[in-house]
UniProtKB/TrEMBL annotation, chains A, B:
Domain HTH lacI-type: 37-93
Claim: Transcription regulation is one of the keywords in the record: yes
Keyword tags: DNA-binding, Repressor, Transcription, Transcription regulation
Native source organism of the sequence: Humibacillus xanthopallidus
Lineage: superkingdom: Bacteria
Protein name in the entry: LacI family transcriptional regulator
GO MF term list: DNA-binding transcription factor activity; transcription cis-regulatory region binding
Length: 372, 372
DNA sequence: GTCTCGTGCTGAAAGGTTTTAGCACTGGCG
DNA sequence: CGCCAGTGCTAAAACCTTTCAGCACGAGAC
């Protein structure tokens, strides 16, 4: 059916609420035009019972109605443009065909919005709606959002976070399905996370393979973030991957710049320091793209060119990575894929507890030059 | 109440659906622990009728219950941790306390996610939930989303778009409240748009006031976008503002670069062309920040510095505008404020048809140098 | 003593769906 | 003929809320 065929026909108000919906004057006569048709209307028009209509329209197996009856019901439903009333169905069934997405600020900031894309994608495939709430990291807001969702009897909950951290969630109703994306919580067994160890390893190898073992610098070492799961549970793994690659190759970086917040200006400052120190740097592992962006600004100011003089590899595949000249080689944070995974896990009938890692694919672009 | 107090107590399943919810073993005895309490449970505990409970809990004016009765009901509700069943209420009331947000790709791309922030902000204040759907510009998806929302009996609809264009929407049920944000539709009378004329004027004046009248270039003239409302209904106004300022000052640009798609590489190419043409350019009006970013890359490659040699002003206040060195002076696209406005208009009881313009504030940063 | 009115409260219907239990009929078998 | 099984269909309950209509009772007016 097409929604566009619904129009209000009178402006009458009954019981303080408008009820006057109906079909555009169309080919079918004898239809009550004052309100949305119900099962009873379809039943009347088909000359059968509500039970029969419900059975047929939901084609329940085992209900043995004559082919004629089935045809009449379908015809009547089509003619009346019947759509079931979601509230009534929810009331009866105890489920709503709706899931909730609660995050700190995934939806409302630009960084991880691809996560929503993934979520909505799968939800849509499964004819499921998504209710959204953001907490801005306030426990009060979280409690409120949760209460709202539970009251609406959502069929499941997805918890998301901007940075992959440990979340403090209240205990959920035990029958409530839930998945965390880009975060973990002791109260939710199923979690979807980016495969950071692999990414750390891949990024580092990319520079090592290009021959930068002798002049490698790390821009953005973050010991605090590494050790505090409330800041991140995955940064640690990213560094583990980096170190595994270095260890394997027997390489020690010529410089390691430490700072916890990864914004362009920090990358700029840190890289400036490295350059001023005179360390013989030929390759930069920047801990994210914004840091890499700042690093490049510092290099440019020094008259150094990427990748001719210094190569850069990085993490995230932020918008900025593709705007840079040269475009940045970086390990992509797979937000969309994580969103898809989460929704699939949530909607799947069986449980799938545990950590589900999603690969961070290396986007190889032009910021690395092979040496000699 | 706190949601965390709900836990499943048995794993029993009735009618094929789990119903076993209850209070954590707490201070109150004699409460049925097997399911969410209903009005009837509260009534029983308070020794009154369902009617009385409903009346009191919704504190309907004109219902004259004794102070004692009111107290008993509140107490019982609190003890049982009663929360009304949203589906039942919707069924009865015909409204849901939920609005729908349908857009092409506002939620799922990074550009306009602040719009959602504004929407959710206000929705939250008004205890309203938000159902989200994205159409990716497919009419099929749009119809599906609309149908879904109408079926769920949302109390209103917000239509959003990434670029401020004319939308083709099916006729809505006439009683359905609706607002468009950053887009317009003949079927929806209330629209929220950015105040582009004012922004065009302000940006241009900023360069003129700094003395760049003699060396002004426009990077990103877009005649097609200007004249096709399906691409944009506001770009036109942006140019009108620019031209009004120029006309007023009696200024003719020394160069006008035309291209319809405003990505960094286009800005880069266009600026390169201008520089190669030898036009005596001292100030660039870039039609968005990404174009400005590309322009700066071209300038830098030519050994020209911003703002020392060339000044830049731009539109949008994209992420990138604040990352650039120097940070970019730009007229902010007020997505968040537009979102707030839209939700306020939607939730307001009276209608407010017409166009609601939201100011685009000029973010004055360091990319403009006053000429001697 | 009857009527009227105000007070405090309640029964029952309505909203639209799903599902259980079961009715009425036919045909086949013993 | 009696019984059983199968076929085609339906009545009614249940889900939980809101609200209309109205009951019972006591006080005051006439």
């Amino acid at each position: 059916m097409s929604v566009s065929r619904w129009v209000r026909v009178t402006t009458g108000v009954a019981n303080g609420r408008p009820t006057a919906y109906g079909l555009l004057s169309g080919p079918h006569e004898g239809v009550d035009v004052t309100k949305r048709p119900t099962l009873a209307d379809v039943a009347a028009r088909a000359g059968l019972s509500k039970t029969a209509v419900s059975l047929v329209l939901n084609d329940r197996p085992g209900s043995r109605l004559s082919a004629d009856a089935v045809a009449r019901i379908h015809e009547a439903a089509r003619e009346l443009n019947y759509r079931p009333n979601a509230a009534a169905r929810s009331l009866r069934l105890g489920r709503t065909g709706t899931v909730g997405f609660i995050s700190d600020e995934v939806t409302i900031t630009r960084f991880a919005s691809a996560m929503i894309r993934g979520l909505l994608d799968i939800a849509d495939e499964q004819e499921t709606g998504v209710l959204i709430a953001e907490t801005g990291n306030h426990p009060k807001q979280l409690a409120k959002a949760l209460e709202f969702m539970v009251d609406r009897q959502v069929d499941g909950l997805v918890f998301g976070a901007l940075t992959a951290r440990l979340l403090e969630l209240p205990t959920l109703p035990e029958s409530m399905r839930a998945v965390t994306v880009n975060c973990v919580s002791p109260t939710v067994p199923t979690a979807v996370l980016p495969s950071e160890e692999q990414a750390g390893y891949a990024v580092t190898r990319q520079l090592l393979d290009a021959g930068h073992g002798a002049g490698l610098a790390i821009i953005g070492n973050a010991p605090v973030a590494q050790s505090d799961p409330h800041i991140s549970v995955t940064i640690d793994r990213r560094f583990n991957g980096i170190h595994r690659a270095l260890l394997e190759a027997g390489v020690t970086p010529v410089a390691v710049e430490e700072f916890e917040i990864w914004e362009p200006w920090h990358g700029y400052d840190a890289t400036k320091r490295v350059l001023e120190s005179g360390a013989p740097v030929t390759g930069l592992i920047c801990l994210n793209d914004r840091v890499a962006f700042g690093a490049q600004q510092a290099l440019t100011e020094r008259g150094l060119r990427v990748p001719d003089d210094v190569s850069i590899a990085s993490f995230d595949d932020d918008e900025i990575a593709s705007y840079m000249r040269p475009a940045l080689t970086t390990a992509r944070l797979p937000y969309e894929e994580m969103g898809r995974q989460a929704m699939e896990l949530l909607l799947r009938p069986e449980d799938s507890p545990g950590e589900h890692l999603v690969e961070m694919p290396l986007q190889v672009r032009e910021s690395i030059r092979p040496l000699g």
